[in-house]
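Protocol step 4 of 6: structure prediction from sequence.
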Amino acid sequence: MRRSNDVTPGGIRPVSGTPRPPLAVTPWVTFSVATCFRTVATPPPGSESTVSVEPGLASRHLRTGQGAMKLWHVLGTLGIALLLGADPVPRAPGELPTLALPPRPDVIPGYAELDPTTGLHMTGTPQFIPVATWRLKVSGRVARPQSLGYDELRRMRRVSSKDPLVCRGYFEDYATWAGAPLPEVLERAAMDPRARAVELVSADGYRTEADLEEVRRSGAFLAYEWEGKALPELHGYPLRAVFPGSPGYRWVKWLVEIRVL
């Protein structure tokens, strides 16, 4: 913000009462996660330089007259979000990118056997759910019960994790999962302040409880994406819970309901 009218168009404040001309060369810089800083062009003398922050999901423009601190604040925010595996901003309404559904194996593996099409191990009773009619219910001790569709969850803030899925004594699976933060889904439902835990319910009848402290501490989220594709049908499509750092029995597949207790 300009504090007085004596700031030149180039964003430089004169030290004395004698006006100082704007900088003759003010580079136009574009920041990209892939390429870091690079000089793209040099605007004419007297024009205001612009810094463009990419990628497209979080594109902003800052005038140099607003000060370098604001630039570093924006870049720092983007950096933190990327380190945490999060999109810098919620996804805007509109058309969502297509998520390809991985192929189903010719033979469904037995319990704890390897699925050769994904490199993941099989647990639970496979459910083949049409996403067009599927809904995630959030019920129990909430003021605003929810019934969320697949695309509604995809439009929420996206986070990801590479933490292993560990079923101790059986297997460890390594993959990149992505989805909507569980605490933010619960916030939509306006939980009762006395709530203490959630129960996660699968379409195959399996259910498990997790206290709210574990939900927050683990960075739990609801995954709709595996390795840049939709979840495989044998591994939770259209939605499964991901609890980074927690045992595999928390990672409920074919999730249909979250009950707040």
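Step 5 (inspection) to follow. DSSP finds four helices and 18 strands in the chain.
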